Amino acid sequence: MSAGQVTLYVASSVDGYIADDQGGVEWLDEFGQETGDEGIADDYEEFFDSIDCLVMGATTYEQVLSFGEWPYGDRPTYVFTHRELSRATDAVEFVAGDIDSLATELEETYEHIWLVGGAQLAREFLRTGHVDDLRLSLIPVLLGSGIQLFSTNDEPRRLQHLVTRAYRSGIVELHYEVDG
After folding, report:
1. Of 118, 9, 115, 113, which Cα lies nearest the Cα of 60?
2. 3-state secondary structure 78-138
3. Range 5-178 classified under CATH 3.40.430.10
């Protein structure tokens, strides 16, 4: 089997923040699937159907848990953490250790991996060359401050444009291939 593909698929404010200063994402609520913009829901469903497993950091995991019912069903989910956390389902596995090695192991096991977030984990996956694809949903909001997806200390990375989609809600999804 060839190495699996890792997609970093994340929402960001137009000014580059994935969460507010307190780590909250309530600013995304008005742009949820209930906006009547079926294109977003259809595109997300198509993407999710292509996923074999999910990867996220502990803070993102706790954020997802706070939304209520676990949204990922029995899809294998790996949570990078050094803390003791409660398991949402039997499909959730907590992992710790060298991110580069663990990412390689996941790529050897799964065909398509969704890197859900957060920012620190995404940066480390990018730094170690484990992001093949970037799907960035720009939300038409300027937060002014918060948790940045990318850091000013990140190494330059070349992106190859694949697709841009604009939705009625004002969300623009940018899809790039990440060069080597």
Report:
1. 118
2. EEECCCCCCCCCCCEEEECCCHHHHHHHHHHHCCEEEEEECHHHHHHHHHCCCCCEEEEEE
3. yes
Give the pLDDT confidence of 16-52 residue by residue, as tens digits.
Answer: 999 999 888 989 988 865 456 668 888 899 999 999 9
Burial classification of residue 9, based on how many CB atoms lie within 10 Å of its CB (0-12 exposed, 13-18 middle, 19 or more buried): buried
Q: Looking at the DSSP assignment, which residues form a beta bridge with residue 15?
A: none
ω into 118 cis (within 30 of 0): yes
| Residue 118 token pair | 């957060």
Q: Answer whether 27's CB lies under 8 Å from 124's CB.
A: no
Domain residue extents for the chain: 5-178
Could you give the C-alpha distances from 83 to 35, 51, 57, 88, 89, in angstroms and in order?
A: 36, 26, 11, 15, 17
pLDDT in tens, 103-141: 999 999 999 999 999 999 999 999 999 999 999 999 999
Compute φ and ψ for 21, nearest 5 degrees.
-60, -30
State pTM to two decimals: 0.92
CA–CA dist 63, 56 (Å, integer) = 11
